[in-house]
Amino acid sequence: MPVQLVALMILLLSSTLGTTRPPSSSVRGGGIPGWCSQVTRALAWTDASCRSSGSLTPFIPDSKRSFLHDVTVENRLIRIFSNGTVLYALRITATIACNMDLTKYPMDRQVCTLQLESWGYNLQDVVFYWTRGNDSVKGLDTLRLAQYSVESYHTSVSEAVYETGKYPKLVLHFALRRNVLFFILETYVPSTLLVVLSWVSFWISQSSVPARTCIGQ
């Protein structure tokens, strides 16, 4: 079978970030920061025979949990054009692991990736590429997060090497900057107010035992 070219586009609908605990069988220790994204993925290839096997659909290597949307029906789109090009789009919500360096927390900057690999076809069968380079990713420019802001992003093409061969891989890299103001309002300001409140006990008379007890509690 000749090598087939598969083009990919991603529409990021929404995203959240947080820290989740990995399963007991995971080789990583402790909690792993992860991000949950809702994406619409569109594939296009030039051989309709590839559609007969679901293994052509890329998988997400770092995915911890993911599911396809099925309300009211499965969110899938298939179009076959007269020139033989097949468009296959689907809507996915996935929680993806992202290893973070928290040395400079909360003024840190993290770089996370979203990787897509071919499951059943290696480089001798299929080649992945981004349809329009960085413009293949839509939605990051308007994305709003409480704890982070997206500084930049770019796409790249790579390959995954396994015992069974080399498989095509597409990677989306994006840099996240933590919003310091969020932690000032949520952590530092409340902690400072509690400390200041504890100083009130120094101005209360030693004979006012009930008042001092209430502040101590």
TrEMBL record:
UniProt lists the family membership as follows: Belongs to the ligand-gated ion channel (TC 1.A.9) family.
Record-annotated membrane-spanning stretches:
180-204
Answer whether the UniProt record assigns the keyword Signal to this protein.
Answer: yes
Q: Which GO terms describe its cellular component?
A: chloride channel complex; plasma membrane
Upper classification of the source organism reads: Eukaryota, Metazoa, Chordata, Craniata, Vertebrata
- List the Gene Ontology MF annotations in alphabetical order: chloride channel activity; extracellular ligand-gated monoatomic ion channel activity; transmembrane signaling receptor activity
Task: Give the organism the record lists.
Answer: Tetraodon nigroviridis (Spotted green pufferfish)
Domain (Neurotransmitter-gated ion-channel ligand-binding): residue spans on this chain:
64-179
Record PANTHER family: NEUROTRANSMITTER GATED ION CHANNEL
Q: Does the keyword Protein biosynthesis apply?
A: no
Signal peptide annotation: 1-18
Q: What is its membrane topology?
A: Multi-pass membrane protein
User: Which branch of life, at top level?
Assistant: Eukaryota
Return the protein name.
(spotted green pufferfish) hypothetical protein
